[in-house]
Amino acid sequence: MKASGYKEFKGIRKESLRDNMSDLELLLTDIGEVTTRELAKEHKPFGLEANKVVAKQGGQIASNTKKDIEKKLGKKIVSSNNNLSYKYLEEKEKLENK
Fold first, then answer.
1. CA torsion angle for 75, 80, 86, 89 (degrees, to 10)?
2. Deepest of 3, 9, 40, 43, by most Cβ within 10 A of its Cβ?
3. How many helices (H) and strands (E) does the chain have?
């Protein structure tokens, strides 16, 4: 899921996506990022297309890890629940309160 879609899924607007992730969601994000970085160090991809291949490999490892954890837990890791709770005021309500 792209960051914009993930934000929409969680119902957040401008807040930090990471601030609204559970511990497991954060860990899986980190696994994908760190694995991609290590793969890039090892394989030294050159150019956009080669870097895309390495990024997909890192993401696949995180995806496989997520599936393994979900299988053992018996539930989904990614949820629309937020770590932080926000109540949005519509623009009209904000203006009326000023």
1. -150
2. 40
3. 4, 0
Single-letter amino acid code for the residue at 56 = K
Q: Residue 35 region, left (φ>0) first, then alpha (ψ -120 to 50), else beta?
A: alpha
Query: How confident is the model over 40-61, as pLDDT tens digits?
Result: 999 999 999 999 999 999 999 9
> Do 27 and 33 contact (CB within 8 A), yes or no?
no
Task: List b or e across 4-17, with b for residues whose CB sees 16 or more CB atoms inside 10 angstroms.
Answer: eebbeebebeeeeb
Asked if residue 63 lies in contact with residue 57, where contact means CB atoms within 8 angstroms, the answer is: no
Q: Tell me what the mean pLDDT of segment 67-95 comes to.
A: 75
